[in-house]
Input
Amino acid sequence: MPETPFSLKLYKWLIRLYPPGFREDYALPMEQELRDELADSRGFLALAVLWVRLLVDLAMSIPVQITRELFQDLKYTFRLWRTRPLPIVFAIAALAIGIGATTGVFSVVNSLLLRSLPFRNPDRLALLQHFFPPVRTAKEFHDWEKHSEYLADAAVFEEGDVNLGGPTALERAHIAETSWNFFSTLGVQPFLGRGFVPGEDTAGHNNVAVIAYGLWQELFAGNAHALGSTLMVDGQPVTIVGVAPARFDYPGKSVLWRPGTFSSGNFGWITIGRLKQAISWQQARSAFSTEAARWLAKTGPRARFIAKPRMMSLRDGLLGPVRNASLLLLGAVLLVLLIACTNVANLFIARTADRAGELSIRSALGASRSRLARQMLTECLFLSFVAALAGLLVAYWTTSLAARVQPPPLDTQSYSIVDGRVLAFAVLVTIVTALLSGILPSLHTRRVQAFGARASNGTRGSRLVRESLSGAQVMLTIILLAASVSVGRAFVHLMGIDRGYDAKGIVTASVSLEGTDYQQGKRQLPYFEEVLGRIRKLPGIRAASATEFLPLDAAGFVGGPFGLNGRPAARNSMMVPVLSEYFRAMGGQVLYGREFTAAEVRTGAKVAVVSEGFASLFGPPAEAVGRQLTIGRTDHWEIVGVAKGMDYEEDPTVAGEPEVFVPATAPAGFYSTFVVRVDGRAEDYLAAVRYAIRSVDPEVPIFGLKTMQQRLDAEVARPKFYRTAIWAFAAFALLLTMIGIYGIFAYAVVQRTKEIGVRIALGATPAGLRGMLIRRGLLMVGAGAIPGIAGALVAERFVESLMEGARPIGMATFASLILFLALVASMSIWSATRRIARLDIITILRFE
Amino acid sequence: MPHSDQRSPKEFTALSPVFFHILLSLAAGERHGYAIKREIAARTEGKLKLGPGVLYGSIHKMLELGWIEEAEGRPDPHLDDERRRYYRITRRGRQAARAEAERLRELVRLAAATFGAPEHA
Output
């Protein structure tokens, strides 16, 4: 028979593309068929025609067969799932939460840490913190940046809120005042028009503005005629010269940029720079610290009030604590996912052991090992696929929740799960999940088959594997529990801090007089008195006052080295200008003396209330009353009272500066906010307070109309979210672990019914047997707990480094954690083995 | 996995031509794969030439349907080769082929009523 070995070899190789079930049955006849065909077709042309037909045939039939077997596997899977749906539903739910939460948190990490910033070469942009370049004049600053040894370009900016609008409607808006080269330093091209040009950051030339894309759409409906139009910024006309690219809102969601003007003593500037081309970050940092040291030396004694200058990448500067918390959460959800995978693997191994008999029969009937392993892998992949689909919902929910409590610093960083990298991550996670939860069981299938019909050996092996898996779950759960306790303690600490005021029952509302009739200093106080007079006439009002700085809002504080009777304090204090009744309205405590009277405020009397923290810098706080509060040798306020300090820092774990309170002579100088103490729920008074303010002059914009409690809640929302998330993850991990343990023992009881029957017949009591099983379970918990503690100790370092205020937990807490786990495990084993108590020995033994 | 598809032959509307031809070929007696293929090719004057994949895919499906079954393997009397698998038609297979023939007859009748009878019908 003339054979063409190459054709046959090639065909044999191509046949491998068929799925294993089909291949096993038909590879031989198909080869035989090819031999027949080859025998019938002689000559090159006939061979070529044969191959064309063969290839068409393969292309047509391979997909059909693969789909068929996949479909068969799926049908088989569904049949299995129908018989015991509960564990499968639970496994899918667990995986869905694992995959979904991981994907969701990853989308946050992706947006913040991986996605590119909306600047050219963002990795070369630096933020110079606690460092002030020479900014007395524009020339001085630009000379400095031009001669920098390490920066190719540097710009300064300052953020602020302004009243924005035309002649009639005013609106509060967040804007940035910048040096002329702000956009060019960032490498941002305006969408329309131009950026600023040299010289525009000097007084008299700075009445130009670049507006945000969104504002352009809102005010001009995207019309190019916007260029050259005039907008009012705090009552001053500015000409629009450019529109920023869509979604560009740096810094801090600004909607308008205008050149600032330089002057001595402006310490609000923030400096950013672009590294010179050939310079590494390390070189730049060392050059910067040399310069900073020189600058600090020139600053003189004031230097000790300034934090250590730092140079960091702009990305790090933007992220701050958000970055760490996101990484922490990502770590936590990955642990949860791992536990969920272990759970599925556990489930599959139990089932494999259950079906050991069936599997060996099937393999004896000729189902190949690879066919069975593939069936299992198909099931895992399908399970993970279903879980991933459900997980996308969880992911979507997670990201939208995250966007609420932890909004991204830039619009271009908005969290999205519809992002190439996030989806790739989700797919990867799903596949890894499927393999993790599928490979262990399928390895086990192999063993079962190797044992052949002696499947009972396989079940003992499987129990050991499952117990090890549960031990691993215990380990991971302890790590998560420890982390959650540690984060939870940080939060409890946060909530327990005495803030020096009573947030309940306070309405707050801010106004801005910029660009209104009351802008001039002398007209401010009468406006405030008029408003306060009307508010006090409302029913249910106990006290009303106003302040320039509300607690929690240390932004833009003023202050300095205050002293007592000319003796300067060892540290800076912040100055809070307030009106009368402030302490009564805030629920603060005047410890000694009194607060200001309305008459003192009206006449601009030089009186002050100092915080306990300030007074105690000089001796017993009570003795401060009656002395002089001083700056240098000229300014004097008579101290009339000592009050408990209020917590002005946004982050309460940071010890703020002591405060001194003085009567506000021009209350609208900074951020003037009314504070109103009411009877009952503060929420019920919001509308009335707003109405009272508007009734004086509807032109004055009111913003930030909130209860103090809402402000406080917003402030702690992020730590609270982290705490809740970590607690939820830990609780979920605990639940999965307990289900794992329950499953093992419930199963062991079924598997070992005969043995148990014999033992009871020989005199063992059911309770004694259950106790024995509990001891075995506790051994497992113990075996998992030891590496768990080690892991928790390592994880704790990670948590502490990532989360401000996270406290390490001591051995006592570990001991109680493990005790708790052991207790829960015992309870779950006790209920899993309740069958033993109901066993009918006679029936069991009759089966023998 | 013989006979795992429980549908009755009547439930199949419009049998695939490949199935129909295989059934026709097996109705005449037991055949092995290559013989089925050659017979079909000859009967259709070379218009329907089944490749190995499609042929054994169809055989696999029909085994599952229980329309054909494997006969005891035996050497081909002509080629003297032992590695042949022979198939034969089952009762269900005959039913299916008959149902298909009936369906085709109805179709032809309908066509004749619509377009007129073909000249040498």
